[in-house]
Design brief:
- This protein has helices at 2-18, 21-39, 44-47, 51-75, 80-85, 87-91, 98-132, 136-166, 170-199, 203-215, 217-227, 230-236, 239-244, 247-269.
- It is an all-alpha fold.
- The chain has one domain (2-269).
- Helix 1 (2-18) packs across helix 7 (98-132).
- It is globular and about 55 Å long.
Length: 274
């Protein structure tokens, strides 16, 4: 089984290289992270934190928007596109299961995201360290940002596969992927903000809001990186938010989401007609 998954993953990664997805994703992460890092480095003196700490806060904000988008763009036609091109029917003539096909694609696409995140954030962190130095705490925050961003990408890759199994064409899958991104990353937070304003420190604010915040994988990622690191919390002013939500709940959301989304994709994949 592992050999088959690795063979599928290698073929998929080769396709990503040929289609310039590895280059595009890496350049996007590197460009935006470097620009945001140096654009947001001005308040370091006033806050009493080093440059890398503020850089981590900037890169976290970038990751919430860019990593899910890249993941969905990589995965939206993983099933629908294969059906349109006849690739899925051909693959299933070989001794591989549908779930193995999904796992092979996941490994390849996750490798693309890991390269993009590692190189992009690593370059930004290196430049920041060279310019303004860093502390052990800020280096730890950067390391946490890298692995949690890859985990966030895994969540939205799996969500993209599930959406791709539901779509009838690549075009429909693309529209569904963009809709998912808008709901999870934009509309969800706007709805929470509106509810907070309307509640005026009532039951929603004290009891429902913390649960609703960690229920969204993008928000759980944001809280983990911005509020649960003392140095980054100082730079962002989110220390109170982090203390109101247990680290166990945040990490639970971050790790449960990719597993649950992949399980859903596997279930839906069984019903797909190649």
């Amino acid at each position: 089984m592992i050999r088959r998954i690795l063979a599928l993953s290698s073929a998929e990664f080769t396709i990503a290289l040929r289609n310039r997805w590895v280059l595009i994703a890496t350049l996007m992460m590197a460009l935006f992270s470097v620009v945001l890092t140096f654009a947001g480095s001005a308040p370091t003196g006033a806050l009493g934190v080093d440059h890398l700490t503020v850089a981590v806060a900037s890169m976290t904000t970038l990751s919430v928007y860019l990593v899910p988008l890249l993941a969905l763009l990589l995965s939206f036609d993983a099933v629908a596109g294969e059906i349109e091109r006849g690739g899925l029917a051909l693959l299933l003539t070989y001794p591989v299961s549908r779930f193995e096909v999904l796992l092979g694609k996941m490994c390849a696409h996750l490798a693309v995201l890991a390269l993009a995140v590692g190189i992009g954030f690593g370059l930004s962190g290196l430049l920041t360290w060279a310019v303004g130095g860093s502390s052990a705490a800020s280096l730890l925050s950067l390391g946490n940002l890298v692995w949690s961003a890859i985990l966030l990408g895994a969540t939205f890759l799996a969500v993209g596969y599930a959406a791709s199994t539901l779509a009838k064409s690549s075009g429909a899958a693309a529209g569904l992927a963009i809709g998912i991104w808008i709901v999870f990353v934009v509309i969800y937070d706007l709805a929470l903000l509106g509810a907070l304003v309307a509640d005026k420190d009532g039951v929603f604010t004290s009891q429902v809001f913390p649960i609703a915040l960690v229920a969204n994988p993008a928000d759980a990622f944001r809280v983990f990186n911005l509020a649960n690191s003392e140095s980054v919390a100082l730079a962002t002013g989110l220390g109170g938010t982090g203390k109101s939500i247990s680290l166990f709940a945040i990490l639970g959301s971050m790790f449960v989401w990719p597993v649950a989304a992949m399980a859903l994709a596997r279930f839906l994949m069984r019903r797909v007609e190649p």
